Amino acid sequence: MKKYLLILIVIFALSFNLVKANNLQIGVPSIAGSQISFTIQWDNSWSLAAAPANWDAVWVFVKYQNCATNLWTHVTLAAAGHSVTGGVLQVNTVTDNLGAFINRIANGSGNIASATVTLNMSFPDAGYNYQVFGIEMVNVPQGNFYLGDGTRGSSTYGFSDGLTCGAGPWNPLLITNAIQTAGLGAASNYQCNSWGSTTNLPASFPLGYNRFYCMKYEISQEEYMAFLNTLTYDQQTTRTTPSPASAVGSLAIAGAPASRNGIKIITSGTNNNIPAVYGCDLDGNGTPNQADDGQNIACNWLAWSDVTAYMDWAALRPMTEFEYEKVCRGTGVVPTANENAWSTINLTQANSAALNNAGLVNETSTSVGNGLCAYGINTTADGPLRCGFAATALTGRVQAGGSYYGAMDMSGNVDEQCVGGYNFNYSGFTNASGDGSLSVLGAANTAGWPPLGGGQNGGISKGSDWFTPTVAYLNISDRQQMVLNYNNVRDYRCGGRGVRTW
Hints:
Blueprint: E1 4-5, E2 25-26, E3 30-32, E4 35-47, E5 56-65, E6 72-74, E7 83-84, E8 89-93, E9 100-104, E10 108-120, E11 129-140, E12 145-147, E13 173-175, H1 177-182, E14 212-215, H2 221-228, H3 233-239, E15 263-267, E16 277-280, H4 304-313, E17 317-318, H5 321-329, E18 348-350, E19 355-356, E20 364-365, E21 372-374, H6 397-400, E22 416-419, E23 459-462, E24 498-500
Parallel strand pairs: 1-11, 18-21
Antiparallel strand pairs: 2-4, 3-4, 4-10, 5-6, 5-9, 5-11, 7-10, 8-9, 11-14, 12-13, 14-24, 15-16, 17-24, 19-20, 22-23
């Protein structure tokens, strides 16, 4: 029987001057020949001419299931023929046609009322099932930005202009078009103590100067659950901790204690044949995907290989640590020593043991203050909070802990995993996005992506997390986590988010 599936993503967002709750909703798709149509709406969208001169968007992509094989395949869109009703939104295509960005046509801000998006697929429907996925993104404009915050301090392995090493202070390095065009020289030219790539970074390496989109939030548990539910049994085996054939109620990726990760098996798979079905069951009552089951909590327990697999599947890519600093700091903004993602040193701890509406879509911390951030809880009995938890109808950037361009939780909650580190040749990484498919065993298969985490393997952790008490790790430019290497395996502190060049 043909069925069209609904993907409903309910998350929270940031506008530059005022942070409010934001609900992205994508309706049940309908098919007519080679066209797929669905409704879309979200709150508190923006497009700004003044600083930070950016906008938000939804990255939309489609998967179809062949009913004869039950396999899910990424849809390639046609190069043209897309439309949106209402005159407020537009469809922006990408060169590989693996999805599209939906964003405002003109400058403005406010809620996006329900509009109908029609995408033209590259093939006619043949009785398939379809899922439409949406991921909220923020635009990061092209422009100069500073790498490093100018202090040696705790950032023993930090970036600098390579001319001011020693006890410090160090000068930050201004990344310009000239540097992006030429690439960066040997590690010793841009980092003190040569804690960088073992070879030059060419012009093809994303140094952060060029424009790109960044996920507004870390991967949520609902998003990772949806990803798992499109994989084969063998792919699920790689991307989860217990066998997909494990008992109903088994945790999918978390160890014990689960540290607020509630992704569980709700229908057991059949060995090497029928994949498992996963759901969110944070409250543990055996009924998945209820309102309080933590679907919008940031997904922890993600190894580097899990994050890269998700990015490849979603036709995104990992961000570099250069891009991480730009998303946080902004174009042309002079760094503040030891600044966090909201560009100040203000810091207020949020703890998952002290919440309002725990596990719900409107989960918030009981703590109030500038730089509200989930960090330093230091007990695995707790865990990360909802993506964008600090945003309310009354909070600005510093109160909500938002980055310059509107990405949330870039400091704290779960570790951001980026391409970078030291004593590893990661120069082959480019701005190429994933192709929407994985290897037979569920691994990312895009050329140039480091296969392992850990700073010595090309996958550095940045921004710290809900557990770690070391405040310095929250700083935008701090690189000490790259020597810890715990993102080589699934760890209760680690999550991630992706970017896409356009």
